[in-house]
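In the current project phase, the collection of sequences with tokenised folds has grown. A sample record is quoted in full directly below:
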Amino acid sequence: MTAYSSPARIVETAAGPLPAAVAAISSAAVHSASPAKAAAPATASSSSMRGESAFVRSLKHWASVAVPPFLVLLAALVVWELASSGPKASLPSPSRIWADAKDLIVDPFFVNGPQDIGLGLRVLTSLQRVAIGFGLSAVAGILLGALIGQSVWAMRGLDPIFQVLRTVPPLAWLPISLAAFRDANPSAIFVIFITAIWPIIINTATGIRNIPQDYRNVAAVLRLNQVEFFWRVMIPSAAPYIFTGLRIGIGLSWLAIVAAEMLTGGVGIGFFIWDAWNSSRLSDIIVALAYIGVVGFLLDRLVAAVGHFVTRGTQAS
């Protein structure tokens, strides 16, 4: 990459060394600036005011982001409380949920037995499965997407098959995975893998096909081999598309693991919901749904933050 030069350096390069008059003017500017030391307290004071105003602006910004959803949530809880307070209400009110499931909310990491553990530990168990399944789907999806996006013959051969397979619902793969692995944990991981891989493949292939031809020409001039072209050109250019697929994939992974755990059992958050339903513990189910929503939101924000850092804010078009 071409290093950036200062304006003075550019002038020196274009017209030779800078004239001595420029150095004299600079020296005079330095000496003339010395009386300004007397005004240092005023400058410090104005700097403090600017810092304070910046803090106030930052505080106002975060308030504008946090206050509206808080008010909406508070209004929804009030309406929910009023609607669920009647004798014929079928769902518990927020106050009833707090009374019934206070231990799940206050202490999410308690352990009272093999199956009597907090929702925080159950969420961590589910996240471990999601990390394995999503990690495998990210690696395989990026490689297959790069192959399809780079090779016309691969696209003609694989794309129709992938388009058919991606329409299969995630839980439809569960019997196949149970028959193949004969164990609940790898079966759930396979369901996550097969659910998350399709948006990663499709978005990666789209990003590879949209690489500018100029980049390909430069790679040809530099005589980059396939591995160098993959790491230096394909991945950086398609990164916004890849992270779009990863964001979709992580959301689908979290949806799939909750549904798969309802059927496979274990100590995950999905099986907790199914077990609470069989025990008629509606308050526990609602608390678990809140956990699922918050964790899913954090996963999406995490992938989005990594993508923003890697792509320097570039969006897929």
